[in-house]
Amino acid sequence: MRSQTDLERVLTARGVNLDTCSDRELMYALTAAVRQLQKPMDHARGQRKLYYFSAEFLVGRLLRANLINLGLLEEAERLLAAHGRSLAQVEDQEPEPSLGNGGLGRLAACFLDSIASLGLNGDGVGLNYHYGLFRQRLDTGRQTEEPDPWIGPESWLLDTGLSYQVDFGGFSLNARQYDLEIPGYENGVCNRLHLFDVERPAPPPAEGIRFDKTDIAGHLTAFLYPDDSDEAGRLLRVYQQYFMVSAGAQLLLRELEEAGHSLLELDRYAVVHINDTHPSMVIPELLRLLTSRGVELEQAMDLVERTCTYTNHTILSEALEKWPASYLEQVAPQLLPFIRALDQRARRRSDDPRTAIWDEHNVIHMAHMDIHSSAKVNGVAELHTEILKNTELHPFYVLYPEKFNNKTNGITFRRWLMSCNPALAGLITQAIGPEWQRDAGLLEKLLEHKEDTALLERLLAVKEENKGALARWLGSRGTEIDPHSVLDIQIKRLHQYKRQQMNALYAIWKYVQIKEGHTPPRPVTMVFGAKAAPAYTLAKDTIHLLLCLGKLIERDPQVSPWLKLVMVENYNVSAAERLVPACDISEQISLASKEASGTGNMKLMANGAVTLGTLDGANVEIARLVGEGNIYLFGRSADEVIALYRDNAYRSSDYWQKPELERLVDFILSPELLTIGDAGCLSRLYKDFIAKDYFMALLDLEDYIAVKERCLAEYEDRAAWSRKMLVNIARSGFFSSDRTIMEYNRDIWHLTPDGA
Length: 756
Ligand code: CBF
Description:
6-stranded parallel β-sheet, single chain, 32 helices, alpha/beta
């Protein structure tokens, strides 16, 4: 008789009937069973430990990912199949934790996976947002926002029963600690993501995402990035940040003391990683806690500087947070003397006012505090780090050259290839063996197969299968696409620097071309997935334009057989897992110098998409790795763009005056579009194009159209294209987050892996 597997035993013991329970019941039962089988292994005692503080952890669904890391995936699939069930259907019931916005949060999630998989002792520290960023709806022709609840009766969250008191100006709240377990890849390690929450969260808002932003006790953990267009919203963000870092710092010191270490050994046993500026207040909070326990202030400042490390993820000033001192006076007045002391120390080190923490307008610069008080500061791609050193943070680089270093981002291939694209993963394993699953660098071996026509044909066939699967999934959501068309995909947050608006102008160009009889060699499907921040009007207008264009094209019998424009509603990790394997052309078209790195570019290349992009962020490294013939580059360089800003030399109207461009921009206000769309939204966008265009879409538009057309034409040489796909997959291994984390550890954190 067949013996029961671990999973089966646990499910049977829990009384689960695999034949009769619903998919949802089965999902909850599997969640509970996996949690039970996830035996946390304690790291060796006395080890240095990393605390990765981040406002976002976009972990995605966890069932399949955890099954893979625990080595239980095949067992689960076999077991379910024996009862006529499929894991794919079951996991569709799993709500996706809404704990992040975009690249920043997904990077943090990939990093936690890699930290555990490399056997490193490192936990995440964040907040338990109940309704996430928001759930996006597009059914009214524009974006509307709703709460995105994800915490169910049997979620992955463990209530630790621990809590920490956080004192705000005038009142206190308890931060309750919930944990998500993060198993490493087949190594028995299980780290944690600590998510702090208020004791009595308010129910979801009655309508949309509007709620009383002054009700801190109820709403502190309701939403990620609450609307900050008014002061109450900005203050709420500061409350959130202080709540997260105060609880996290208390947890750290408790663990340090429980391990028997003295506070003076903080830097020896702990690393506090500050992921972007949201957790920056951990610096003065640690100073406050250390001095309240008897450590001298100067000594505490030295200790904290040796303990903290900081990553900068953007040069956009809107994301380099600065808070009026008056906000901190209200939220956490106890921090102000420590921030003042840090500022005075910074001023003793440099008399350059550009490096001040507390400026003459009574504004506190979080990134400045991070740089002065961290042992290391890094950017997230080579170009980005160079821009930080030479331009944006130059005065700091002059002061602390030894602190600055680059750590090019990465992605976990376990989720972004093995899990989301099993057909491609299987094909790769057939060709080069399974070792790449532990070391993505070994994907390079695929280069030996560049002339292997059978493999190249299989590669094309796998892509077709994945496009078919995407078409079925979109079809089940009411959107039909042609799986045999070229899939041209732009999936990322909606922001003007990412230039979805430039891609919209391409769609207009293509529409006009087809109307004039220039049909493409095969149909093209342009797919967008993007959320716009609720208060970012032009971003929402861009979504509106894209939706209008989608409708216009669909209604036109002359154009619709050749062109389709689709916006995937509520783009999130689960949607990305469907889109990434199916993509032919990966749109990475930000204005050079503005995208710090990008990570979607890495996921898409690893799945055999070919990049169409500017020399921005990690695209620069992709281009170097794959070589000229395997990427489509266009647009001005970062140096040219930086010079244009410096000299205030860009006038979008100069470009708009070119008849070919004027025609495209003016189409936004054409009768065809105005009968579909909202005149207010469309004219706002139109005016922005001609009077401002801050992110210079018109600057690169002609080149973009020309190169995209060349890319579509070359797609028709299927044999040559399949070789490009192969080279992209083979060279993507560099972008494994395991490599990134090994570099962080080698140069920044210095943790000892288990078993070393
Ligand atoms: O480093 C991770 C990502 O972070 C951002 O998303 C961010 O929020 N600052 C950047 O925009 C990306 O370029 C970067 O890849």
